[in-house]
Every structure is written in structure tokens, then in C-alpha cells.
Amino acid sequence: MDILFDTANLDDIERLTPIYPVTGVTTNPSILKAEGKIDFYAHFRQIRSIIGPNRTLHVQVLSKETQGMVDEAHRLLDKIDANVYPKIPLTEAGLHAMRILKSEGVKVTATAIYSKTQGFLAIASGVDYLAPYYNRMQSIDINTRETIEALAGFIKRFDAPSKIMAASFKNIAQVSHALQSGADAVTLSPQLLQQALSAPDIITAVDRFLDDWEEIHGTTELPF
Ligand code: E4P
């Protein structure tokens, strides 16, 4: 199972990557907006230096045209590093770009997936990851669990190399449901993971253990 940080915030990535079992970082232009006017390639080289060579880094192209997407993907590989996964929105132009990039041996993440049809096309094109947008799909009354199950079923049935990296989460229940439905990976904001571990019940349980110990032993530490 892969858990990725959906953020471009250097401080969060640096502080939280040693704590959480993350296997990569994803971003999109809206996520980058939160970081202000960054030096684009330098920013991603910094992310790479924080996460190291073994975690995956997924960076989205901007162009809406096939050739523009292919050119931008090449630029990402040249200017960040050769292991970047260009993230390509699955439009018709994007599908064409993905097929060209896959024929060149480039690793590709298909993004902006809202439907089974987009998913099937991504899988049939041999993409490495496909990113169904969980919350956005739910918001327009698409059955996200059924969609992910169907895509996972196709991957299994055709022994395809693609992995489902569910994205666009607004609460932790959506994350669990995506994984239970067959997603191989989930990408979410570090804040959502942190929220999950700071739930009042967890804090209360830990505090009560300490209170009980202190009541008898007068300390909150184990004996030396
Ligand atoms: C993933 O990489 C997606 O771009 C992202 O999760 C979309 O999230 P949003 O729906 O919160 O914008």
C-alpha cells in the first residue's frame, strides 16, 4: 500500500516524511498556488532532495495540447530528475500524450479521473498510476467505491501494470473506503493524516492511561 503526501509545502514534507510511512509526493497547479510564486524546478529538486531517490514524485503538466504535454513532461524529466512521474489529465489530448510518453518508456500518472471510462482508457494505455478524484466524484453523485472496485477488477483481470492512486480526499473515511475498494495508493494532505491522529478519542485514551499510572505511582514515567 502506498500513501503519498498531496502537497508542495517543503516544511511539511521535511517534518512529516520521517513520521508517516509515505512513499511519495503528488502536486497539482492548485496545490502549488498555496506556495506562492515559487521557482518551479528548484522547488521540485528540493522536494526530491528531502524525500530521497526511492519515493515517487508526481508533477502535473499545464499544457492542454498533446505536443505541449509531451514537451512539458520531457522538461520535467530534464530539469527535476529522470524518475519524475509526469501527471497528465486524462482528456483526449492527454490520452494521446500518455500513449506517446509510454511508448518512450516514461513513467506516467493519469490524473483528473472522474469516470470508469477514463480509468479503462488509462489502464489500456499502460499508465503507471491513475488518480480517481474521490471527493470530487462523490460531490457529483458518482459511486466512488464501485468505480474503484471496477477499475481494480480490470487491472487484475487483464494483469495490467497500472496502480490506482486515489486522490482528492476531504475526510479520512474516504481514504479508508478507497483503500478497501481496491486502491493501491492514496494521496492526501498531511493535515488530513494529522487530523486522523489527533482525534479527541485517541488523545483522551492516552491521557487516561497516564492519569491512572500517575494516581498510583506519582509519576508519568516508567521506572528506571
Ligand atoms: C491529486 O494529485 C489531485 O490533483 C488532488 O488530490 C485533487 O484534490 P482536490 O480535489 O482537493 O483539488
TrEMBL record:
Listed Gene3D superfamilies: Aldolase class I
InterPro entries: Aldolase_TIM (IPR013785), TAL/FSA (IPR001585), Transaldolase_AS (IPR018225), TSA/FSA_arc/bac (IPR033919)
Record localization: Cytoplasm
Key words of the record: Schiff base
UniProt-recorded name of the protein: Fructose-6-phosphate aldolase
